[in-house]
UniProtKB/TrEMBL annotation:
Chain ranges passing through the membrane: none
Alphabetical list of Pfam families matching this protein: DUF1349 (PF07081)
Gene3D superfamilies in UniProt: 2.60.120.200
Protein name per the record: DUF1349 domain-containing protein
């Protein structure tokens, strides 16, 4: 990404390309492969770096957002947005099916993964996600309508010259989650106040 230039699907490429996907105008359709996941060590002890990400490369700090539509039904079905520095430094955020309900959550990984999650009280089948990285700080936001953006996480994040960011999905326990990603943009950081929810 050249500074000041907004990117989208046309600038992306796959990390762990799924067998079944297509780009139809402004909509990226993906069907997950079996046993795909992102996780490092915590609680379970294993490392997984096999989930699907359609990523673009930034020229430093950025704001990215995407609309995610899917029908989750099996344990750990998940889709959302991912930011990566390396296989040991990344964050993913979105909807994940857990304990029989759709949860909104994020996993921050700096050598080992954490997991912060809560029930999502709106339509989990249609959500917007936004990630802003600026000056070593990551801000994650979620929206039910693409206009009002609630804060879901604020945390330190590695300050580097370039990031990979894009729509993410995976199904650790099965194959076949169908996801439609749209309205994907990556550009300069918004610069909005923390409590500006627009």
């Amino acid at each position: 990404m050249r500074r000041g230039v907004t990117m989208g699907f046309e600038d992306g490429s796959w990390l762990n390309e799924p067998a079944d996907w297509r780009l139809d105008g402004d909509i990226l359709h993906v069907v997950t492969d079996r046993g795909t996941d992102f996780w490092r060590e915590t609680h379970y002890g294993f490392i997984r770096d096999t989930g699907h990400v359609f990523e673009v490369r930034t020229a430093g700090d950025f704001t990215a957002q995407v609309r995610v539509r899917a029908q989750y039904r099996e344990l750990y079905d998940q889709a959302g947005l991912m930011v990566r520095v390396s296989p040991r430094e990344w964050v993913k955020a979105g909807i994940e099916w857990s304990d029989g309900i759709p949860m909104i959550g994020s996993v921050l990984t700096i050598d080992r993964s954490d997991w912060a999650t809560a029930p999502y009280g709106r339509d989990a089948g249609d959500v917007w996600l936004r990630a802003t990285v600026a000056a070593g700080v990551l801000r994650l936001q979620v929206s039910s309508d693409g206009r009002n953006w609630l804060l879901m996480r604020l945390c330190p994040f590695p300050a580097v010259s370039s990031y990979s960011v894009g729509p993410m999905c995976c199904t650790p326990e099965r194959a076949g989650l169908s996801v439609a990603f749209s309205e994907f943009t990556v550009g300069v950081p918004t610069g909005k106040d923390l409590h500006d929810l627009s």
